[in-house]
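Explain this record to help learners:
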Amino acid sequence: MAKKGSEVRPIIKLRSSAGTGYTYVTKKNRRNDPDRLVLRKYDPVVRRHVEFKEQR
């Protein structure tokens, strides 16, 4: 039997770098992205796209 996937795809929080406290919740593949994830996504508080960094 295969494992449920929590080892390979952990749930992470992406926190806005604009300082608004807005977060996205997503999963990532730990084998393909072992470093911390940084994505450019929309922050509705400041109404623009900003960098979201992985929070542990």
Remarks:
- The CA atoms of residues 6 and 54 lie 17 Å apart.
